[in-house]
Design a protein that fits this description.
single chain; mainly beta; four-stranded antiparallel beta sheet
Length: about 120
């Protein structure tokens, strides 16, 4: 889906590597803090060697609230989320009882060009 923003200046992609080759033990989890968003859209690419549960949480000023979640299977998973708040993080969990999972995550956080 494509939206026109006639009053918005140009927007450029900004790919931010969040984590590379992180090993998650069976039934383990971690939380990855992301940079503050300036435009309220984020594209997420999760590259994993096995099944992984990912939850996007946003900080509303008082608490972290789970806004979106997905199950990432082995390979690449692409995921888009429209943010409500600029501060967010990803919570990752390896649901497997016996297999380690290696994960790499890149974020596409669009930005406006410098004036």
């Amino acid at each position: 889906m494509y939206y026109l923003f006639a009053d918005e200046p140009e927007v450029w992609p900004n790919v931010v590597p969040l984590v590379k080759d992180l090993a998650l033990a069976p039934r383990a989890g971690t939380v990855l803090d992301a940079p503050r968003a300036t435009i309220m859209n984020v594209g997420i690419r999760v590259r994993t060697t096995g099944t992984l549960n990912a939850v996007l949480e946003e900080f509303d000023g008082a608490d972290w609230i789970a806004r979106d979640r997905t199950e990432c299977l082995g390979g690449d998973t692409l995921w888009h989320h429209q943010l409500r708040h600029p501060e967010f993080r990803l919570r990752l969990e390896n649901p497997s009882p016996d297999g380690e999972v290696t994960v790499s995550i890149d974020l596409n956080m669009p930005q406006r060009p410098e004036p």
